[in-house]
Amino acid sequence: MSAGVASTWRLFRYHHADGTAKDWAYRRLADGDLEICWGRTGQVRQQRHYAARDGTLVLRRAAEKQGKGYIALGEAELKEGALVLIHPSAPATGPIPAAAAPRSSRTASRRVPGPLDLSQIAAGEDDFWF
User: Fold this and answer.
1) What is each CA distance from 122 to 3, 92, 102, 115, 130, in whole angstroms?
2) Which residues contact 130 (CB under 8 A, 6 or more apart)?
3) How many CA atoms lie within 13 A of 41 on its CB side?
4) Following CA atoms 64, 68, 72, 78 in sequence, which dihedral angle do they give, to the nearest 10 degrees?
5) Is the CB of residue 50 less than 8 Å from the CB of residue 17?
6) Are 38 and 23 within 8 A, CB to CB?
7) Bridge partners, residue 66, by sequence
8) Residue 125, C-beta contacts closer than 8 angstroms, at least 6 positions apart
9) Mean pLDDT of 71-96
10) Can you say how many angstroms the Cα of residue 36 is from the centroid of all Cα atoms in its chain?
11) Does residue 101 have a pLDDT over 50?
12) For 9-30, what is each residue's pLDDT tens digit?
């Protein structure tokens, strides 16, 4: 983190279905450069510095995060590894989802709720699958 910089972070949060969450945030420094930080909510441990000329990259990444289900929460301060919201954004219309819906079958949960009965798949077809 840059010393002596008191600018606030623009905070985005993603809520997982299991109740956990992760944060991603960016801020513009006094010299025009940008920083991003990310990690589990309350445990932001990673940061990266970008030159001012790469500002559009950071803003594009923020838009991508929202497309993936991150919610823009507002302005925050980074204190001891936690992003603390100080100026919330205007509330979104409608309820905020607990987690984003899976985007494809590859990202869907692979947990099986219980034993599966496969006896009715292609019943009467000898060696259908093999």
Assistant:
1) 67, 48, 29, 18, 12
2) none
3) 16
4) -80
5) no
6) yes
7) none
8) none
9) 81
10) 13
11) no
12) 999 999 999 999 999 999 999 9
